[in-house]
Specification:
It is a single chain. By secondary structure, this protein is α/β, with parallel strands linked by helices. The protein has 14 helices and 13 strands. It folds into two domains: about 210 residues, no CATH class; about 150 residues, GMP Synthetase, Chain A, domain 3, CATH 3.30.300. Helices cover about 35% and strands about 30% of the residues. The strands form two sheets. Strands 1, 2, 3, 4, 5, 6, 7, 8 and 9 form a nine-stranded mixed beta sheet that branches. Strands 10-11-12-13 form a four-stranded mixed beta sheet, sandwiched between helices. Strand 11 and strand 12 form a beta hairpin. Helix 9 packs across helix 10. The N terminus is likely disordered.
Length: about 400
């Protein structure tokens, strides 16, 4: 009998104690009600002709979200935008935010901001960290928010209405995860600018408009490469094909496929299943060199050639063609970024610092003069681990094989 009654008695005691402790909890007198806040979802920072800082923010509209939950959706004719876009200028970000606040009846709240976009004109002017200082010092903005550069004004990116996602901040965050292995946050960028190499990269955004004016609603934002930085000043940009070589070196590539051509012009594509890159520095007889060691295991996703992946000799040929394609991408990145811009956006300085700390101390203050003299070698290993669902190409099947 005692055993049967013990469970309800214990339950009653537990409930009583919970009620007691709940009553003794103090309220949070300094808190702000959600209904009194304007939630920032994404922000753009531009420079005006008068050298003023222009801040553009996307603010969540609860009313629009509520109407969509009640049945409004694409094609119903009653869809409202989920965000409101407003801009204001000032001497810096903090000053611009004071002026932005005047445009809202609610207190602007930065805690949900997932994306910060700097306009290319601002980035080329330099001193991005002066404005990022606001993001770090203010208690609300998140330093883990993703950072981007736009080819035109950042405000134009935020004005776009995405077709699949709720707002542009969400689009950029999800897209960057598909483009770069690890999206670059505000904190990541600042660490790049103060690293040994003092070089960095940020994804470069571009507005892509449809050819037909009547399809203006299909205007989208695309990744068109990366912006290259020397400290916190943009010194140039590279296109998407060259970007792949740079990302291979940085171990940040997230390609959907590697495509190359055979000597007779046929196309072969492999999807990387696993990939890793190591920078192996070496100092010998006073000469500095680094080997870019890349290892890729891939799935053959398209074979337009007559090479049979199931034959070892043909498999080796396919792997060789793909390795040469990767080598060309990496070499193009080295030529454009190191030789053309004089920037170590690869992280090579860090690799020497870690392996040769004493030698690094002697050159760290004039690395920009040493870096161009460093020999960069490539050691690329690509292995096609899986042939896909077909083991033979149509060409070999037609020959009766």
């Amino acid at each position: 009998m005692n055993t049967i009654l013990s469970k309800p008695i214990k339950k009653a005691i537990t409930v009583t104690m919970l009620c007691f402790f709940t009553c003794t909890l103090s309220g949070c007198w300094g808190s702000k009600e959600l209904s009194n806040m304007a939630l920032v979802m994404a922000a753009g920072i531009d420079i005006t002709e008068e050298d003023q800082v222009q801040v553009t923010i996307q603010v969540f509209i609860p009313r629009a979200a509520s109407s969509q939950q009640q049945g409004a959706g694409p094609g119903t004719g009653g869809v409202e935008s989920l965000v409101l876009v407003k801009s204001a200028t000032g001497e810096n970000m903090a000053d611009a935010m004071v002026n932005l606040q005047k445009l809202f009846s609610r207190q602007i709240f930065w805690g949900h901001c997932d994306a910060f976009i700097f306009g290319e004109k601002f980035a080329l002017k330099g001193h991005l960290n002066d404005q990022i200082d606001f993001i770090n010092r203010h208690p609300q903005p998140r330093a883990r928010g993703d950072l981007f550069i736009s080819k035109g004004p950042a405000s134009e990116i935020l004005e776009l209405v995405p077709a699949l996602e709720s707002y542009m901040g969400d689009v950029l965050q999800k897209s960057s995860e598909l483009y770069i292995k690890k999206p670059i946050t505000v904190k990541d960028f600042q660490l790049m600018t103060i690293s040994d190499s003092k070089g960095g990269i940020l994804p470069l955004l571009e507005i892509s408009k449809p050819d037909q004016p009547e399809k203006a609603t299909e205007t989208i934002t695309t990744f068109s490469g990366v912006a290259i930085f020397k400290e916190d000043k943009m010194v140039g940009s590279i296109k998407e094909d060259v970007t792949q070589g740079l990302l291979w070196i940085r171990n940040q590539n997230k390609l959907g496929a590697i495509t190359t051509s055979t000597p007779d012009g046929r196309k072969i594509s492999v999807h990387p299943l696993r990939q890793s890159t190591k920078l192996i520095p070496k100092i010998e007889n006073g000469k500095w060199s680094v080997t870019v060691d890349v290892n890729v295991d891939g799935l053959l996703v398209q074979n337009g050639s007559n090479l049979d992946i199931m034959e070892e000799s043909s498999s080796k040929q396919i792997e060789t063609y793909l390795q040469h394609e990767m080598e060309r991408d990496i070499e193009a990145a080295i030529i454009e970024v190191r030789d053309g811009m004089g920037t170590d956006a690869f992280g090579i300085a860090e690799s020497f610092h870690q392996k040769y700390p004493e030698e690094w101390e002697k050159v760290k203050d004039h690395w920009k003069y040493v870096f161009p003299q460093v020999t960069i070698n490539m050691d690329i290993h690509l292995k096609v681990q899986e042939p896909g669902l077909m083991t033979k190409t149509l060409g070999t099947i037609k020959r009766g094989e």
